[in-house]
Amino acid sequence: MKKILFLLTTLCATTMQAQIAGNDWYNGYIQYSAESLSGGKILMNAMDEGEEHECVLVPVAGKAETYYVADGENDYVNEYRGMTAKHMKKEGWDVIGFYNGKNQLVALMENTAKFTNHYEQVTVEKWKQQLKGEYSSPDGISSLEWDNNTITIDGVIVHYDVVTFNGRVTNYIDIDDSGTILDGCWEVIPTLEGITLYEINQKGDYLYEWERTPVKYTLKENNPNVGRFDYATNTLLTTKFFSHYKKSTLRIMRNAIMARNGYKFSSKDLQDYFGKEPWYKPAASNDNIRLSFIEQLNVELIKAEEENPDHEAYVKEP
Questions:
Q1: How much is the pLDDT for 266?
Q2: Which candidate, 34, 4, 30, places its Cα nearest to that of 16?
């Protein structure tokens, strides 16, 4: 009997292992490869700016698809040390969630099997989702529409490039020869109401040599039928995504996911904020509200991030 139980446990661990091993996993800025080890363990390995990252997922007895995160044999970076990993497949999503000692979801990896583009392109596309919308500005722009690859400024369509560095989005865009007031390089800072653009002076080839000029444009989203954070209901977020957001803004982002599903708020400030939105239709009761899988993950991830202090080195919201 003990032998049968051992064989069943081994078979279960091997099946779980096979769902992760052999695939690549993307955490929002670097891509990990997964390799099977003995005992159902999985070696996760990645390279970032010449520095190797490595960890081992060790199956937790009695808990399907759950792993302890241990160090590998080499002295490589383990950014998930001491965490618990859970493999989750639902509603077409295939992800690994990393949970801290408080059982808070603090990081996600997504299976890259369905990616049609290189992971850097995926990063850029996800970053663009937070910018799409219709805006106005008191700084000399009557109307601005931000789309995937173009910005329409007072009726003039211009193309822009997202500046990346080693696969990371830098929050800079480059607009060349458009003949508009947005010619040049700009730092893009998402805010609670929209976006602030800071003109960037490129003093050298390195990003740390770039600096802001006194020129900036404040853009306010003005489409009453689209929520400011609608992208958070269909785009899998990552912690790297939050670096330019204040915690107060993240709180609104998290609750915007709830509001989109008709959640009835008890906090007066949230009642007042979302009560002004034409698209918000509060339900009579929250009992029947069900978030999608990606919405649940994003809410958990944002909530954990809110507990961290604002990082003034990154948060540049006016």
A1: 94
A2: 34
